[in-house]
Amino acid sequence: MLANKAIDNINKNYNSMLYFQSRFTTGKKYQSPSEDPVSASTSLYLSSRASRIQQYIDRINDAGNITTDTETALTDINKSIQSIQELVSSASNATMSMSERQSICNEIDQHREQILYALNYSSTTGYIFGGYNTDRPPVEDSAAGVTYNGENLLAMTDLMFEDMSSEIISFNISNGVKMGITMTALDITGRGEGNLINTIDKLTAELRKDPPSVSVLTAESKALEEHLNHVLAKLSEVGGKQQRLERIGAQLKDAEVLIEDKISLAEDADAEESIIKYAMAEQAYQASLSISGKIVQMSLLDYID
Amino acid sequence: MSFYGLEIARKSLVASQQAIQVTGHNMANVNTQGYSKQVVNMESIPPSMTASMGNNPSKNIGGGVLVSNITQVRSAFYDTIYRSENTRYNEMETKASAYLYIEDILGEGEQGGVLNGLECLYSAIDKLAGNAQDSLLREEVRQYALSLTENLNTTSAMLYECQQEQDRNVATIVGRINTIAQQVSDLNEAIFKYELSGNTANDLRDDRNQLVDELSGLVDISVSEGPTGEYGIKINGMSLVEHTSVNEIILKADTVNPVTGTVYSTPYWSDVDVRVNPAAGTMKAALDIRDGSTPDNRGISYYLNMLDNLAGSLVQEFNAINRAGYTLPYGSEVSESGVDFFDPAHTHATDIRLSDRMMENASNIAASSGLISGHNNWSNYENLQSFLDLRDATDLTYGGASIGNHVDYMQQITMDIAVTGNSSGKLLSTQKKMVDFVSDQRMSISGVSLDEEAINLVKYQHSYAAAAKMITAIDEMLQIIINM
After folding, report:
1. How many CA atoms lie within 13 A of B110 on its CB side?
2. From B354's CA, which of A37, B170, B271, B401 has a CA 20 to 30 Å away?
């Protein structure tokens, strides 16, 4: 019976030693959730939040790419409109000859092409100004006129304009926060008689006349000025979005670090504590081995001869 | 009369010899499992009653010593307590290890787990929302959905296997119970016949007690020994062994698993058509683990039901959303609505799978809320938003079970088994202490102590030497008389 008790105690101490050893070598408080359901439950919930935050950070990166591309395209359009403005004002000079005005119109046409090109800007996700159409170039120019996603800009109704320009792709960038990232070409050009391309076309058409009407030129130049302001407003809108994305991204990164800390608190075993407890358990084990060894050897039979 | 003294000495020699032999028997069995130490009961022999009447003091001399019987030191009280604690201990041990195994199968939080699969799927859908027509992103969603179904299939298949293993376990246990019962009844007969002579069948009783101890681990038993020595074992009131007759337990295949149709066996009594209803023990543990399907009795069926609820709800919700949206055109297929995400005919965790269309092409993920053609709706992702809303839902139900949302539900399943396993582990270690304590008590009463036996050896050696000395003394006295 002594032997049995000795074996029991040795086993108990051995298991205790193993427990602390595994805590130290794995660095974790528990190997499976049933060892410590409370910590496991916290850790599970926190891991879920951490992976969500990681997803939001990824989305913000993707959104950032699109806004950068949008900014590039808008800046390009801005430059083109400014160039057109300068050309128009120089062509408005009454001393210009017909052929000189003609060559200026050709240059304006080049800038018009550049604007159409910028409106068809495509990035890694496809055409960014086409609303839900990321597959083919949204803006097409033909003899029949300029179309956006197949619909003629001049003939477009108000209702259709509302419909098509609402095709904005939004990203989930934080808990309950959805941000519209893209804008459609319609947002930039407008529709109907006063749309950007038509304004430019009217200007070149007038400049090609001999002589061009000053009142028409003035009116259309004013319209062009408004388009320029509109594009600048869109640029600052995009700038604002980028700043907001950066701020939310920084907040999320901070939250991520905090959650990682909390997870570590729930899961990780304190290294110093583990190794001290392990050393103590090892000592207890050795003591029980040595004493049991001495006890089981003693017997009365040794003393009776 | 002159040899009366020799007779007394002779009886003393014989008694001491027998006592030493019993001591030797005890020492030889110091390591025998289940052996109870035997003691020699000695009686003094009274003076002969046939002496003639009269006040003659010399007729009043006692006749020596006699070994009246050899009995074993055993406490029936501790035996009973040990057996009931042992029953509970074995039941908890079986359950605790089964719960550990189930927890491993459900595989929380690791890369291959269902929980991780769900989160990856939702994350891929969120990414797709940013560029709904990208074929690589679509393929990623499809792959995650596929591996989620495979994961559910594998997990529930492993649970079913575990269930079948418990079924086989029940059959093995029943076989063992019947064998032990038969052996006990044979021993009953042998012990009864032996004890007719008035002696105690010590070693046979030890054998029987060993068998009954093992039986107590399997089922909860109550033991009774009648006044004439008939030994009976009852399980929860129904008789298993009654003296030499055995009432065997048979297995009837009458429990059907509603989902797979597999038939499991239940133990029945062979004489009366009544289920064997153990209140504790390994057999009860195996039956509980196999069949338990309620929160009071969490067995494999309980967890399988939860997985089935999850699978069924996934099929139901995902299909409803996918059917409401429009697919991307591919090959000769045009954009259309009404396409299933998962196969609606397979709604259990064992057989959930992607629909045929989804297996064909990831363009069948209905991201768009409008028909896709020409310039329209290629990156329309409004229907995908409905999938994402599922991730934050709080009120999903399936077939009467309240799910909340899928990720929460799976977390619930994970924590459920963790808590169950944890509390069962704690109960087990407490129960082990109880069993160990009673076992120690038993051993201290019935166990052989070599030190005690060594002292007994010295004792009986001395009494033998004294008896031998007496013989020498009486022999010398007789020599004097004879040589006169």
Report:
1. 11
2. B401
